[in-house]
Structures are given as structure tokens and as C-alpha cells.
Amino acid sequence: MKRIPVDQAKPGQILAESIARHDGVLLANQGSEVSEGLLRMLVRLNVDTIVIEEEEGRTEEEIRASHGENLSRLDRAFRRVGGQPVLMALKKTLAFLSKEEMEKGIFALRESQEKGADEAQAANGTQPEEGQGEAVSPPPKAGAKASKRQGKDQAKDQVKD
């Protein structure tokens, strides 16, 4: 367990202690995954610090399992909304955000593993083999294809001029 300032917390970290307001209202349970929304709320409520689990030892499988748990909670929370389009769209958006957080967590895990391997190789005086130690590209952002298309269209327009 480690107590850190809220402004240093990152999405994907796990709460080691529950967070409650000064009047006792529970904001987040112990074992919950920190999300960007939770961090914004904590800043808004002037929460200074949180206690998180040590990051070491969290595997890709655990990150994926956490995402699965998030989806199960969403299913339970939205099971009675039936065919209400606005609420179903909200559920779909929350599921997408959960998936995006999972991908960010996996990306951060892989990046830290590669950094550790590079540091170990540097300490041993060896060079990374071809294909190792290269930068890892982050998960694609929504709309990345659209902006790439716009860039291609602009390039075509410049060629025509």
C-alpha cells in the first residue's frame, strides 16, 4: 500500500482503501480501479490523497479480468433499462471507456516491462536485439482513422494545386 497525492494517481491503479467523503458517503470501494472520472471527482471534492496498491505484480490477465468485472457491473446496473435508447447508449459509452482504460493499463504495463528489460541490458552492457527495446505505440484513439484520412485528403489537395 502506498499513500499518494490525487494529482499523482493514474487511471488503472487499484485502491487499497475505500474513499469516503467527510460525512461518510462512500465514493469508491477498496479494490476499485482508479479511472479518469474518479480522479476528476476527487479533485472537485478536494480529496488530497488516496491509498493505492503497489503496482508491481499486476499482470495483463488481472487487468483484463478487471475489465470483465467492470462489464459485469455495467450489465447489472443497466439490466432493467430494456430498450431505452438513451440509457443503452450510455451503457455502450461506459463499456467503451472501460475498454479504453484496460488498453491504457496494458500499454503502461508493457511499456514498464520493456523499460525494465532495457535498463537490465544497459546494466549488463548488452545491446537490445533487433526488434527489442523499440518504442511501443499506444493504443489507437477513437477518431485516429478520421484524422489520418483528413491528412491524406489535405496532401492530395496540395498535390492538385
List the helices and strands and how they pair.
Layout: E1 2-5, E2 19-20, E3 26-28, H1 36-44, E4 49-52, H2 60-77, H3 85-124, H4 144-160
Antiparallel strand pairs: 1-4, 2-3
Helix pairs in contact: 2-3
- What is the residue-mean pLDDT, rounded to a whole number? 77
Q: Report the β-strand fraction as a percent range.
A: 5-15%
Gyration radius from CA atoms, angstroms: 21 Å
Please identify the structural class as seen in this structure. mainly alpha
- Regions with pLDDT < 50 over 5+ consecutive residues? 132-136
- For the secondary structure, the number of strands is 4
Global morphology:
globular
Order of helices and strands: EEEHEHHH
Please, how many helices? 4
Task: Explain this structure.
About 3% of the residues have low confidence. The chain contains 4 helices and 4 strands; from the N terminus they run βββαβααα. The N and C termini lie far apart (61 Å). It folds into 2 domains: 56 residues, Molybdopterin biosynthesis moea protein, domain 2; 68 residues. With 161 residues, the chain is mainly α. Helices cover 52% and strands 8% of the residues. 11% of the residues are buried. Helix 2 runs antiparallel to helix 3.
Question: Key terms for this structure?
Answer:
mainly alpha; two-stranded antiparallel ribbon; two-stranded antiparallel sheet; 4 strands; 4 helices; Molybdopterin biosynthesis moea protein, domain 2; 2 domains; 161 residues
Short account of what is shown:
This protein is mainly alpha-helical and 161 residues long. It folds into 2 domains: 1-56, Molybdopterin biosynthesis moea protein, domain 2, CATH 3.90.105.10; 57-124.
